[in-house]
Amino acid sequence: MNAVAPAAALPQERLKLTEIFLSLQGEANAVGWPTVFVRLTGCPLRCQYCDTAYAFHGGQWWDIDAILAEVARHGVRHVCVTGGEPLSQKRCLSLLKKLCDAGYDVSLETSGALDIAEVDPRVSRVVDLKTPGSKEMARNRLENLPLLTARDQVKFVLCGRADYEWARGMLAEHRLAERCDVLFSPSKTELDPRDLADWIVEDRLPVRFQMQLHKLLWNDEPGR
């Protein structure tokens, strides 16, 4: 009788990562919490104000189990999966599920250009709606908006008054504040934060003004 050959080991699920690091969450509704950031490599968009262009290329392959082990090593509850555009790697969905299964408070930062329907419902999805000033407004996937729930957030990065008026129109047209938290942020180099704050107060918009805490603390220092 011929011996039965052992079954081949299943290949590990892998993702290409730019970095994993511990810092403070600098934006969205978890702002201020110690958070492990898992930054995936690659993005199909080229927003003119992008501050993480170093994540477009390069990176290293990680087994998902190794990612979970590295996250656990830092010993905090909050995990943010970001990019680049994390959903451009299909196995991101598996990572998000496993992080939730492990008991973490998980958020996903996504450009809003890709389908969010299959993201684990336990994840807080922070969906960026691209303004005219971003130069990538045409990439917005508006089909995502009806999928948003109270766990999610919509973020607008505004480059000037025209962007503000466009975002105000989107807020009303899609009744976004009735679905989830809405965040308005000034582009770092193109809009005075005080102007944006004044406009929000004047119009009494049901949105949260935010600035990037990590940029105020550490500017653009990598890994912070």
Quick overview:
This protein has about 220 residues and is an alpha/beta fold. The protein has a single domain (about 15-220), classed as TIM Barrel. The protein has helices spanning about 65-75, 90-100, 160-175, 195-205, 215-220; strands at about 15-25, 35-40, 60-65, 80, 105-110, 125-130, 155-160, 180-185, 210.
Description:
There is one protein chain. This protein is of the alpha/beta class and 224 residues long. It has one domain (14-218): TIM Barrel. It is 23% helix and 23% strand. It is built from five helices and nine strands; from the N terminus they run βββαβαβββαβαβα. Strands 3-1-2-4-5-6-7-8-9 form a nine-stranded mixed sheet. Helix 4 links the parallel strand 8 (181-186) and strand 9. It is globular. Residues 1-10 have low confidence and may be disordered. It catalyses: 6-carboxy-5,6,7,8-tetrahydropterin + H(+) = 7-carboxy-7-carbaguanine + NH4(+). Residues 30-224 form the Radical SAM core domain. Catalyzes the complex heterocyclic radical-mediated conversion of 6-carboxy-5,6,7,8-tetrahydropterin (CPH4) to 7-carboxy-7-deazaguanine (CDG), a step common to the biosynthetic pathways of all 7-deazapurine-containing compounds. [4Fe-4S] cluster binds at residues 43, 47, 50. Mg(2+) binds at residue 52.
